[in-house]
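Is zinc ion placement plausible here? Inputs below.
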Amino acid sequence: MRACLKCKQYVLIHPDNFISLQIVNKFEKDHARHTIVTMELSEVRDFYTNVEKIKNKSPVKVSGD
Ligand SMILES: [Zn+2]
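Reply from A.M.:
I modeled the complex. Tokens:
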């Protein structure tokens, strides 16, 4: 899975799932200026939010700090 340290969000990677790959690509683009790392789910599940569960909320505007 890919996680953004800045936003405390993650996205799961399902290599065989085209929709999932699109979500991962969008996640990496959205967080390109942040710190994206590859982690195991067990490392972050208590601290991070799955971006797929919050995508219906208003996106957080990040104005590049
Ligand atoms: Zn981010």
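Short version: The two ends are 25 Å apart (CA to CA).
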